[in-house]
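REVIEWER CHECKLIST
Item 1: Sequence provided? yes
Item 2: Single chain? yes
Item 3: Sequence as submitted:
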Amino acid sequence: MAYDGIMMHQVKKSLIDTIQSGRINKIYQISKYELLFQVRANRKNYQLLISSHPMYARVQLTSLAYPTPEAPNPLTMLFRKLLEGGYIKEIEQIDLDRILKITFACHNELGDMIEYTLYIEIMGKHSNIILVGKNNKIIDCIKHISPSMNTERFLQPGALYQLPPMVERLNPFTSDFVEDNQLTKIYQGMAPILSKEILYRIDQGEDFKEIMKQISCSQDLYITKVNDKEYFHVIELTHLQGITTKYALFDGLDLHFNEIDQKERIKQQTSNLLKFIQNEYQKNTTKLKKLKATLEDSENSDDYRIKGDLLYASLHLMQKGMTSVEVDNYYDNTKMKITLDPKLDPKANAQKYYQKYQKAKNSIDVLHQQIELTEKEIDYFDSLMTAMSQASYYDALEIKEELENEGYLKKKKQKNTIRKKKIPQFQKYLTKDGIEIDIGKNNLQNDYLTFKYAHRYDMWFHAKDMPGSHVIVKAQDLDEYTIRLAAKIAAYYSKGKNSSSVPVNYTLVKTLKKPAGSKPGKVILDNYKTIYIDPDDEFLKELTQKL
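Item 4: Structure as written out by the authors:
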């Protein structure tokens, strides 16, 4: 991971310049691994994100809007009780290791000043966030490590905090260059990718101390793309020979981790939701196969009627107690062996076959109805799986709300408070010509966008015969460029995203109708046109997000 000790050194310097001496206003645990501190410093509000994720652990200031739970958990309540209203007294780094130490000055219940220390350990799967009180006693931590898990260093309330074992290495900012093909073994805080970059630059004739001076002075983040994979550090990673973009340090971290965070947050918070949708889809697919097999049997029910006819014509050959009888089949001039119920007399056996025939005949209409309903359920959950594949965290929450409204999931009981109905948060963009294009990312957004928000003379786009986003273009008399752009968006946000030549229907909003009693997201089209388009994400470069 590129978030090494040297990266943390630069982050620490930026945090000291911005939030040291700042006041803690609010604390949230926004996921299993993350805390968000709202800090007021130098007449500005900041968000300090602290993550102990096994793969994406980091400390940074962030300008992104993270979901904050309404009900705090016990850890959040404890952190709020002790730290809210307090000040950040000092921000330190342990040597050049990936351990940040933040000291808070707070008042206790009696009004006495008391200090707490937060240790943030960025160490891959061993990353942790540990709050320590006086005498170095652990108050609590985001991950508890019991003695049975680690006999040498356990982390849980009441235990004494001790730093992880340190390996003695040189400080690259104050030491001379030591020639080695792996500088990570020689110097503190240096990730393998930075080691390779420094060695590459030295081979190109640059001086080690000059390189380290560049790093020390950098408050930027350089993100390099190689084959759709991103690498980053506080200096440009020239040895990768990729496409590099320069950002302010925390802006770059936001940009790099935003998409990763979104996917991880959905996975953490709504993994059960996706599993439920997939299970319902599979359940209905299996049910449809069984219904069609039963229908096929029912449609071949004439066999029961024929057997009933033949038994009535051969009553003289049967008597109660027989398990079968062989009769002349006058329908095709052959012999037929018919199974009998030994408990029934001859007439009752014949009548039983007539009853089976009538039951099968009567079930055909019901089976057709059930097949139609099951196919609708399959289409519905298919649309939800498509929406989940491209959903943000808030999109996924709206999908969960939709399932609750439709009765598939049980709603949580809420207190007797009047809550204003939330408007689905669809995406708004502007084209280079200033035309607004709106995108629904789930069924609730699609319905609201098409039947509430859009004007009747706006243009509506949707991938043909497959689940996907409703796309609204708020303009009339569209040129070919705008039609193709909107069609590309509709194809990209559909089940046909990875296909070529995807058919996209488009029509005026006024021609659309909502089928009575249908699931969210369904429409009936009239007088539409179809365009075939190859979906890709290049259209994103041509759009500006509208706030």
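Item 5: Key structural point noted by reviewer: The first strand starts at residue 23 and ends at 29.
Item 6: Recommendation: ____
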